[in-house]
Q: What sequence folds into this?
């Protein structure tokens, strides 16, 4: 069944490529035109067709990543943009890294966004937009550290209240009994006192004072 499914997919792609022209450049131009008009689904379809013909072309992966980003498919976009990092052109690697920062930020991954923008600047120190985005993310990170979220703060407050209640209950409750160490110390003190008294009696000649009768 799997082989048959793969065959169907290949046949469908072949028919589609035949319909749109099996030229990578033509498919890329069509995709770019659709992308610029905001038709990201259709643009993605053209880029995917081009990828079938040239699966190792970093330019295609770059465009795929951008289209997936626009469609909100952030994990897929990040995977496509990572494939661009083998490109020999520093400018394309820098742009891919910058876009990976945008993807990470939209996905709520602030640390990854900071790393990506910093990476883009490392490749192209003159990228002002990457610098601005990096500064923005660093400021946002600092704000998050200085202002813990309300959920965490509530948990901390509840824990403090529970600890205070436990302390109050312990103070109000009377002490019941004593532990083993306390008992042993009392027994030892009594024995020491008895020994001391016996020693005094021996020193006094062994006489024992008798109380007078009434």
A:
């Amino acid at each position: 069944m799997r082989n048959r499914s793969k065959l169907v997919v290949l046949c469908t792609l072949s028919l589609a490529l035949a319909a749109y022209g099996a030229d990578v450049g033509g498919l890329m131009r069509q995709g770019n035109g659709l992308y610029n008009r905001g038709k990201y689904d259709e643009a993605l379809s053209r880029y995917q067709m081009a990828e079938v013909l040239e699966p190792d072309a970093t330019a295609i992966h770059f465009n795929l990543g951008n289209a997936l980003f626009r469609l909100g498919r952030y994990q897929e976009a990040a995977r496509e943009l990572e494939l661009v990092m083998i490109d020999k052109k520093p400018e394309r690697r820098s742009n891919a890294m910058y876009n990976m920062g945008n993807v990470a930020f939209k996905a709520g991954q602030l640390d990854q966004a900071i790393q990506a923008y910093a990476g883009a600047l490392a490749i192209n120190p003159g990228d002002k937009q990457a610098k601005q985005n990096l500064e923005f993310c660093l400021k946002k990170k600092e704000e998050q550290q200085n202002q813990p979220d309300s959920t965490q703060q509530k948990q901390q407050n509840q824990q403090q209240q529970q600890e205070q209640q436990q302390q109050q209950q312990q103070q109000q409750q009377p002490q019941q009994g004593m532990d083993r160490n306390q008992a042993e110390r009392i027994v030892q003190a009594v024995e020491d006192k008895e020994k001391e008294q016996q020693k005094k009696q021996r020193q006094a000649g062994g006489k024992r004072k008798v109380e007078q009768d009434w």
